[in-house]
Amino acid sequence: MESKDNIEAVRMFLNSSLETSEAISSALNESGSRLKLLNQKFLSMQASLRPISIQNFPFSDVEHGLDSVLCSVSAVHKVFQCVNHLEHSLSEDASSDLFTYVSNTKKLEEALKLLTDNCKLATSWLKSVFEFLQNKTTISTNEVYLLNIKKSFRILQELQAIEDDARLDGGILSIALDKLEIAFHKLLIENSMPLPLVSLTSQIDQQNNATGVEQGLKFPSSLTGKLQVIAERLNANNRLDKCQTMYVEVRGTNARRSLKTLDLSYLETSTSEFEAHGTENCIDQWGKHLELVVKKLLEVEYKLCTIVFEKIGSKAWISCFGKIAYESRIFSFIKFGKVVTERKNDPFKLLNLLSMFRVLNGLRLKFNQLFRGEACEEIRIVTKDLITRVVNGASEIFLQLSEQVKLQRPTCPPSDGTVPKLIDC
Q1: Are residues 265 and 390 both part of a single domain?
Q2: Above 60 in pLDDT, residue 25?
Q3: Would residue 193 count as lying in a domain?
Q4: Is 264 or 20 the better-scoring residue by pLDDT?
Q5: Are residues 157 and 263 in the same domain?
Q6: In the listed set 116, 149, 180, which residue is the last one of a domain according to the structure?
Q7: Does 200 fall in a domain?
Q8: What is the pLDDT of residues 28-51, one digit of tens each?
Q9: 86-110 pLDDT, tens per residue?
């Protein structure tokens, strides 16, 4: 049944990706037409400025100004050609050569910024020439030149707006980033499979199964490298939130599905449902499962988060890990421990609390390592509260133990010759 659900989920994802790809292709065609039109206008601007530059004006100032304008315009033209070339390369599928696609996306960002800066510089020089010619009444052809300069102003303004347009929905850069988001999600989906976590019954079993779990969760370096460069590029373009949402959704769902391979129904047991003779087995299972979840499942998720979001900063990966930890039912484990501490005091409860303390103390260093930062603050708070309850509860029972012995004195020894339960504790 679960396999069928997985196939259906993949089918829906592929259909969604196909629809998105068709929309992106259509938008790219429109972007290409707009760029060709701007290129024609740009060439027209160059032609209109050239007659001005070859006139023998008796003004050294305007000659210097026109030389500067033509240099800036030449730079604009070269950058614009680069943008055209990158636009063509980014029309291809991102997954075909991901690292090259990410590299070209970064180059496009840089080219667009350079285009904007050069347009601003050319506009500034052209404005100086315009003001100079406007104030010179001795030149009969000023009106023609002024009209050409005004036309050039409009073209430069359109070229300068390319960067902003590229970032809007349907723009060149926006489409490229959409493709990277699709590739990021696809890579996660294809490499996140539910793990067959099993209840461990011995230290040997624990060691053998641990190796299998770690191998199942580790991603190859080639894959983590792809996820890392995509996340870095999306972050540079203010799309980190969506990137993190996709990451937590996929890895969090994978953690929940992995936990379904364990029988964790006992975690929902209430205080009133606990029986003294049935608690020990539940606590034994609780300890083994908690160690498995923390040391194997969450530790590798923690390492994966740090690698994928390493170049963005600790706040980014700690935030993602904290949400994935929540999906791993860590709070259910803490809640179960709290229920045990709320049982009425008796010698059997003392054994339960000591068993729980052994598990929690053994995980203390791992908890401190994994659950750091603001995103994991609630986990630290509830864990600290549980440890306090366990220690205080055990201390209280120790103080009452002498009274419990007195109450047992009138009791007859077991008829089968076994050790009395209180002594057996």
Answers
A1: yes
A2: no
A3: no
A4: 264
A5: no
A6: 180
A7: no
A8: 455 455 555 555 555 555 555 455
A9: 888 888 888 888 999 999 999 988 8
Mean pLDDT of the chain: 76
Residue 384 and residue 301 share a domain: yes
Number of domains in the chain: 2
HEC assignment per residue over the chain: CHHHHHHHHHHHHHHHHHHHHHHHHHHHHHHHHHHHHHHHHHHHHHHHHHHHHHCCCCCHHHHHHHHHHHHHHHHHHHHHHHHHHHHHHCCCCHHHHHHHHHHHHHHHHHHHHHHHHHHHHHHHHHHHHHHHHHCCCCCCCHHHHHHHHHHHHHHHHHHHCHHHHHHCCCCHHHHHHHHHHHHHHHHHHHCCCCCCCCCCCCHHHHHHHHHHHHHHHCCCHHHHHHHHHHHHHHHHCCCHHHHHHHHHHHHHHHHHHHHCCCCCHHHHCCHHHCCCCCHHHHHHHHHHHHHHHHHHHHHHHHHHHHHHCCCCCHHHHHHHHHHHHHHCCHHHHHHHHHHHHCCCCCHHHHHHHHHHHHHHHHCHHHHHHHCCCHHHHHHHHHHHHHHHHHHHHHHHHHHHHHHHHHHHCCCCCCCCCCCCHHHHC
Band the pLDDT of 205: cuts 50, 70, 90: very low
Evaluate whether residue 215 is within a structural domain: no
**Structural domain of 346:** 254-408
Same domain, 5 and 120: yes
